[in-house]
Write a structure and sequence with these properties.
This protein is of the alpha+beta class. It has helices spanning about 1-20, 90-110, 165-175, 185-195, 230-255, 290-295, 315-330, 345-350, 370, 475-504, and strands at about 20-35, 40, 45-55, 60-70, 80-85, 115-125, 125, 130, 140, 155-160, 180-185, 200-205, 260-265, 270-275, 280-285, 305-310, 335-345, 350-355, 365, 375-380, 385-395, 410, 415-420, 425-430, 435-445, 465-470. The protein starts with a helix and ends with a helix. The model is unreliable at about 15-25, about 445-465 and about 470-475 (pLDDT under 50).
Length: about 500
């Protein structure tokens, strides 16, 4: 009888063990975004792009391709937007000079570029109603908005894109009819210009303002006087830095929109800034040229785009000679000294092993991959009409890495290319968009009591790589604990059974 009971208990415990569901999480390396945006090189010299070619479902390996092409983008037309300071309307002589030059430029350009269109953005800002009287004291009028923050509405479209020279001339004549003086907000004008282009076009943005802006979006003209001159100085410097930061970001964003930027320096800019007390006395002066240079850069090294001086040349001469040759009729020749540096984010550098394809291995330096997450690809010369590609694999070293779960990461942080054009001019262009991946966790149940599946089997996804991570609940740990308990119980029953047998 005892022997029979012993057998029944063993069968029940084994059955219980077999019926336990083991819940385990599958991890799959998913492609979220397969490729980066296409980055156009300076002067439409060519393009650069990063993309995922494949994702191995068994090894957790993705194959990447970086390509650089020396071909120019073709455009249906060219659109030029000019940013002008509306305070020009207060100086009739200067305004008439600009009207004459813009009219001359438009008439000539439209003759040999019938598909080209020109528009004008007026740069405004908060109203400045301030005058210095004969005693050198500042008098603030009732319309002054110096304490009001600058906003995105501090700009307006004076002339929509057109190929009619008379429309442009009339727009400038109508500019700022009330002769208001504004605290200039260049950031607002740049933002409006970006949204004013139409369709697929060769986009060129020109600003005729090179001074230090008085405001930016969220920044007001005034600063707190402070307790002493030192406090005032610190407040003025902080305000200038804030304006530089916000306006410079707007200039740099033009590159992401594939907008060519040109700054034309009038040559007689006064960068002097004056600050008055509440009672009207001049309390502080600052040369703003340092901050203007931080904002725009220099003629030799602008923040972005090109910078030309109008001191020795007319507007029409600079734009027709330089702009047309460089942006509208770019030379299509070989690129030389081409070097591409690919920077990987920390998550890639720390958790992925990189392998360069055999055909590229002699041209790629990976020595810095483990220290700063970069590889350098030396292309050398890229002939006109040719494409050069770099293929490499990134293999996840641990599919069970919990720190990467459900986290979307970029395969590339930045890809930077340097090269020389046909005129031996050096260019540096950065691609900041990227393909993205994600290590995702998915629950999968294995039921030994229900191994028969009468439904259709799900199709295997060959774009994912799977691993196992134990989970809480009735899981592998509990399964092992139950099995150990079963063995202990069996041993105790077996011992008792033998003891009883010996008594007999």
């Amino acid at each position: 009888m005892l022997k029979k009971s012993f057998i029944i208990v063993i069968v029940m415990l084994l059955t219980l063990g077999m019926c336990v569901n083991v819940n385990a999480a599958q991890t799959s390396l998913n492609i979220v975004e397969k490729e980066s945006k296409t980055k156009y090189l300076d002067n439409n010299q060519g393009t650069m792009q990063n993309k995922i070619l494949s994702c191995n479902s068994e090894t957790g390996t993705i194959t990447m391709q970086l390509s650089v092409t020396n071909t120019k983008q073709t455009y249906e037309n060219t659109e030029i937007i000019v940013i002008m300071e509306e305070n020009l309307a207060n100086d009739t002589t200067k305004l008439n000079q600009y009207i004459s030059q813009v009219n001359s430029l438009a008439s000539k350009v439209f003759l040999f570029a019938p598909n080209l269109k020109i528009g004008i953005i007026g740069m405004k800002g908060t109203i400045s109603d301030r005058q210095v009287d004969s005693n050198g004291k500042l008098v603030i009028g009732k319309n002054d908005q110096g304490s009001k923050n600058g906003s995105a509405s501090d700009a307006e479209v004076l002339a929509n894109l057109t190929n009619n020279a008379e429309s442009l001339t009339q727009a400038l004549k109508n500019m700022n009819a009330k002769k208001v003086t504004y605290n200039n907000n260049l950031q607002a004008a740049l933002k409006l210009a970006k949204s004013s282009y139409s369709g697929k076009a060769n986009k060129i943005l020109i600003t005729l303002f090179d001074n230090m802006p008085s405001t930016a979006i969220g920044v007001c003209k005034e600063v707190s006087e402070g307790k002493d001159s030192k406090a005032l100085e610190q407040a003025v410097i902080a305000k200038n830095k804030d304006i530089v930061s916000k306006t410079k970001s707007e200039i740099l964003s033009l590159e992401q929109e594939d907008i060519n930027f040109i700054l034309l320096k009038p040559g007689n800019t006064d960068f002097n800034q004056k600050w008055y007390s509440k009672t009207g006395e001049l309390t502080y002066q600052l040369d703003g040229s340092t901050y203007a240079q931080q904002l725009y850069g220099t003629t030799g090294k602008p923040t972005y785009g090109e910078m030309y001086s109008l001191e020795n040349s007319s507007l029409a001469t600079v734009l027709i000679t330089n702009m047309y040759e460089q942006f509208m009729q770019p030379k299509k020749k070989d690129m030389t000294s081409v070097v591409v540096t690919n920077y990987f984010p920390k998550e890639i550098m720390s958790h992925y092993k990189i392998t360069i394809a055999q055909e590229n291995v002699n041209n790629v330096d990976t020595k810095k991959y483990e220290t700063d997450g970069s590889i350098t690809w030396n292309i050398g010369t890229l002939a006109e009409g040719k494409t050069s590609t770099l293929q490499y694999t990134l293999q996840l070293t641990d599919m069970k890495n919990a720190s990467l779960l459900n986290k979307t990461i970029a395969t590339n942080e930045k890809t930077e290319i340097t090269y020389k054009d046909a005129d031996e001019k050096e260019h540096t262009v950065a691609l900041t968009s990227s393909s993205t991946i994600q290590l995702k966790e998915e629950q999968e149940q294995k039921d030994n009591n229900n191994s028969q599946n009468t439904g259709s089997q799900p199709k295997q996804d060959n774009t994912t790589a799977k691993g196992m991570i134990p989970q809480t609940g009735v899981n592998i740990v509990m399964f092992v604990a139950i099995m150990i308990s079963m063995l202990i119980i069996i041993a105790l029953i077996y011992k008792k059974y033998h003891n009883c047998k010996d008594i007999k």
